[in-house]
Structures are given as structure tokens and as C-alpha cells.
Amino acid sequence: QVQLVESGGGLVQPGGSLRLSCAASGFSLDSYALGWFRQAPGKEREGVSCVSRSGLITYYTDSVKGRFTISRDNAKNTVYLQMNSLKPEDTAVYYCAAALTDYKRIHHCPRAQSDYTYWGQGTQVTVSS
Fold this sequence. Notes:
By secondary structure, the protein is an all-beta fold. The chain has strands at 3-7, 10-12, 18-25, 32-39, 46-51, 58-60, 68-73, 78-83, 92-100, 118-119, 123-127.
């Protein structure tokens, strides 16, 4: 069964840190670019970060630059999102996603949600004092 399972969400105070993990099962992440998205209450889901299939190219939305770091460990079939200096506006359900990417686009970091084939079920991140 193909699935992505996120973990690591929770309640944290402003300025705190969380590390989200997303483990794949039923398929290998080697051929996929990987992304993190989030959806806050009453808002549309937005892209937060992505990492190319090669692992060499990353992207961050402006609001998280300098605070969030995406990484991948193909040996563990897992993608991570390290979130530091968290703010209340980071509160959202966070989703990981995988986009099948051919070798010609190994350094491509997909931005569109429609590029992503597999999605996790989401993990809640709440930043509040």
C-alpha cells in the first residue's frame, strides 16, 4: 500500500521548534521531488517548501525563509521539515507530498500542487502561548 505518513506535529510556544517527518511506504522516494504544504483554518492550502529529486535544489515560501529547512534521507525513505522560530501564523495542518520526477528534471522543485501524486494525511502544528 502506497502511503505517506507525517509525524512530529504538536503544540509549541512562539519561538519554539518542531521537526516534521514524512515516511513513505509502498514505494521509494528516490524518483520523487518532495514538498511540504500547509492549510490554516479558513485558508487555502499553500506550498511551504520543496526539495528536488537530486536533493540539491530547495525552495521556501517567503514567510518561512531562514526559519524552516527541508531535507531528505532516501536511505530512510523520509523527508523532514525542521521548523525554528515558530510564529502563531505558522499554525496549520502540514502535509507532505511526492511528485514523480524523471531524470531530466532531477533538479526541478515543483511548485504546483497538481504536480504531486501522493499526499500524506496531514499533521497539526499549533503555535500558541
